[in-house]
Amino acid sequence: MARIAGVDLPKNKHIDIALTYIHGIGLTSARKILDKVDLPYTMSSDDLDGDDVSRIRKVIEDEYTVEGDRRREVSMDIKRLMDLGCYRGRRHRMGLPCRGQKTKTNARTKKGPRRGAARKK
């Protein structure tokens, strides 16, 4: 099992899909990385040898922000918006969607579970 950027890559998956388990790398980025190290997308993650893993690791370290650094960067961006007091920052602070979705009937993921009407005695 290969370990890249502090993440164990899953077994029995194509390597382009397996790389997306690293926070900060999506499918497009994974395929660009594999193009740079000359590996096929359909290669299984189990078939990687030490040399392949080290080449992938080097490309990721040199050109991408991943895992803890990426999470920190995103949280600092959100904190900056909240400190500015702009519309998106206020929506983050209130726990509501920021990108224009309607909230009358949906947005349960962001708003949390429904709170029922006050009970009558």
Can you tell me about this structure?
- With 121 residues, the chain is mainly α.
- It folds into two domains: 3-64, Helicase, Ruva Protein, domain 3, CATH 1.10.8; 66-99.
- It has six helices and two strands.
- The chain has a two-stranded antiparallel ribbon with strand order 1-2.
- Strand 1 and strand 2 form a beta hairpin.
- The chain starts with a strand and ends in a 10-residue tail after the last helix.
- The model has no long low-confidence stretch (mean pLDDT 91).
- Tally of DSSP helical segments: 6
What is the beta-strand fraction?
A: under 5%
Largest sheet: 2 strands, antiparallel
Q: Please give the oligomerization state of what you see.
A: single chain
Can you give the helix content as a percent range? 40-55%
Structural class from helices and strands? mainly alpha
Distance between the termini: 61 Å
CATH class of the largest domain: Mainly Alpha
Number of beta-strand segments: 2
Radius of gyration: 21 Å
